[in-house]
Amino acid sequence: MAKLQEKTLTLLSNNKSTISTANSPFSDTSNDYAPPADLAAALNEQEKHKYIRLKQIGSGTYANVYKGHLRADPSSLVAIKKMKVQTDYKEGLSMDSIREIKFLQELSHPNIIALHSVFSSKDQNINLVIEFMPHGDLEMVIKDHDHVAYGLADVKAWMGMLGRATWFCHENFVLHRDIKPSNVLIAADGQLKLSDFGLARSFADPYQPMTHLVITNWYRPPELFYKAKYYSGVVDVWSCGCVLAQLVLRSAYIHGETDMQVLDAIVQALGQPTEENWPGVSKLENYVMMKPPTRPLTSKAEMMNLFGTLGPVGVDLLMAMLALDPRKRLTSKQVLEHEFFKIAPRPTKAADLPKKGGGEKQAAEDLKRKATLLGEGRGGKVAKKLDFGAARR
Amino acid sequence: MQRNGAVPAPFEDAEEECPICHSKRYLRKDMKFMINPECYHKMCESCVDRIFSHGPAACPVAGCNKTLRRARFRKPTFRDLQMEREVDIRRRVAEVFNREEVDFDTLKDYNDYLNDVEDVTFNLIQNIDVEEAEAKLDAYAAANKQLIQSNMKRAKEGVDTFRARQEAAKESAQQRRKAALQEEEETRREEEEERRNLLKALDAGGDAEVLTRQSQEAMRYRAQIRKEALANEISANENANGSAQFTIRGLKKHVEKEEEEEEKPYDPFDGLSDKREYFVLQEDYGWENYDRLNKPEYSAGGYNIHEYYNRALCEAFSGLGVFIGDSSDEAPPAVASAGAALAAASPMSDDVF
């Protein structure tokens, strides 16, 4: 607190000149007095001035993302996420940006994306300055079949990092509620960074209902499809389980067009939730039984067929993360404590993890080019030999 | 005349004349000009001989009062004497300021250094604050005598290894050529012999086609063997010469520090702990108000009352150990009695620990 006050005071004194020139009627009234509106504007201007915005590198429904760097040091790259003005939220900031700012400025962890600064640009657009991630996200790695190959040790390292991020959120009573491969970014040093806290919220008080309309539906746990209003951190663990399965399969494990199809996919993949395997499930508002015959819970042998590369311990972890009954599902802490992370192979070091994109592709291109050069080289030698022959004759 | 100021071997201009004796190239075809790096006034060789053969003398150019010595006269490399002078100055400065990029931590430091050096050089060339620039140069040379020496040695080594490598490459090329010639010679000899053998065999009577094919195959086989042997020999020679080795100078020392980390077992929590400083979470706080949460419509969705207990306790104690008066970031956490705090926050539990 004291620190904050001090900071504000120094900022105040630094900005005295700016403020007084900006608002001349006040300049000679009192030495230390500055109208709050102008102070805020001046602070904002100062913050904005620290960064230079370069070209656009991405755009989504809610925001455009630009590459940028510190004005003082062009080598320190940042990403500037400029939130689009929402039509539904004419009277202020969108929920997304508020959630994102609120939680990102609280959470500081190597596997959670860092929020460096926030400022508003003209038209009251909110800009978030976040870490720059040159290597894309986990989804690109999973999808890039041709150029990226990875093994069990890599999967374990990624799950370890994602698990840490999830656990750290939960330990600080934050539900992420949108964990999926495309929200897991890869930093320059190979570390994964959980990003996009636009759907995050803090844990609910008892009896306080939460919305079930969160998490991208392929990664949504069954209790949310059943419109559960009172849920806990294990909804994020389900999403992590889906990511683990996707890392092994290299395609989404549970998917479908509509919510109903996705729920059906869950039932087909893992079994029909019933009162036996999930006591009380039928009391949930939207509980449905799929058409008979009722599919029994998937056995470990069936899972081994699909996820054999994880080994028996890995399959245990996966099944525990994808337990239908949220009370039987592992918590994010239990995930990290699981035997899977203790047995061989040891997780790959972050720096050695495969990365997608230019690097890999470029390397492949380089290899191709080298191969042709080699061929030319050999051809050249043959030509020389022929020359000798001609000279002799 | 070439654009870069370099002069084609003889000065061709017939109208050119010596500014001292005014003799023209038209009359003296072999006239050569010389300069002295003291003042860069050019004059013909005979003038130099005439004026300076009896020891030091003043420069004959009007207004130039420099004393010149014969020994320092030389032929200019460039026709443009401004250029000649600049090159000399640059050479002199570069001999003193001979640091290389590898000596610097960052590229920026190196560029700053180059900028400073260029300032001195430019001043010397343009005659701006010459005294000061000279003083700077001398001061640096005096202060960094040892370093300059070692850098010079390093640069020379670089040139030497480059030369040695070129030498070795030339030699191996020569060897290759010789080997190829030898091979051709041998092939020819063997072909000759093979043909003779074939003729003999045909003479003795036999299927011409079969014999021809046999002889051709034998020849091909022998050529293959010879080629392999030759390749082996050459590569062995090259390795012995060291020309196949590739050396890169100036690589920064690579520090191997990852070895230590390998020793430690993998920590899934990455050194963090969920241990709370001020409380220990109990299994149950016996609050009747929350009993309803055990009903399936609340519990089936997975709501976990312990998460709430944990959060409530954490929020109750948050801010403890932070002192407003203490501006230091690393304020040691206040050692409030954890037991007392817990008891205060959880009145329902009769056993604190």
TrEMBL record, chain A:
Keywords linked to the UniProt accession: ATP-binding, Kinase, Nucleotide-binding, Serine/threonine-protein kinase, Transferase
Domain Protein kinase as annotated: residue spans: 51-341
Recorded GO MF terms: ATP binding; cyclin-dependent protein serine/threonine kinase activity; RNA polymerase II CTD heptapeptide repeat kinase activity
Domain of life where this protein originates: Eukaryota
Region ranges (Disordered): 347-374
One GO CC term on file: transcription factor TFIIK complex
Gene Ontology biological process terms from the UniProt entry: positive regulation of transcription by RNA polymerase II
Residues bound to ATP: 82
Catalytic activity: L-threonyl-[protein] + ATP = O-phospho-L-threonyl-[protein] + ADP + H(+); L-seryl-[protein] + ATP = O-phospho-L-seryl-[protein] + ADP + H(+)
Compositionally biased spans, kind Basic and acidic residues: 352-369
Family: Belongs to the protein kinase superfamily. CMGC Ser/Thr protein kinase family. CDC2/CDKX subfamily.
PANTHER family xref list: CELL DIVISION PROTEIN KINASE (PTHR24056), CYCLIN-DEPENDENT KINASE 7 (PTHR24056:SF0)
Record's protein name: Pkinase-domain-containing protein
UniProtKB/TrEMBL annotation, chain B:
GO CC aspect terms: transcription factor TFIIK complex
Pfam families cross-referenced by the UniProt entry: MAT1, zf-C3HC4_5
Basic and acidic residues bias: start-end ranges: 164-174, 186-196
Subcellular location: Nucleus
One example of a Gene Ontology biological process annotation: regulation of transcription by RNA polymerase II
Keyword Cell membrane: no
Region (Disordered): 164-196
SUPFAM superfamilies reported in the protein's UniProt record: RING/U-box
InterPro entries: MAT1/Tfb3 (IPR004575), MAT1_centre (IPR015877), Znf_RING (IPR001841), Znf_RING/FYVE/PHD (IPR013083), Znf_RING_CS (IPR017907)
Protein name per UniProt: RNA polymerase II transcription factor B subunit 3
Taxonomic path: Eukaryota, Fungi, Dikarya, Ascomycota, Pezizomycotina
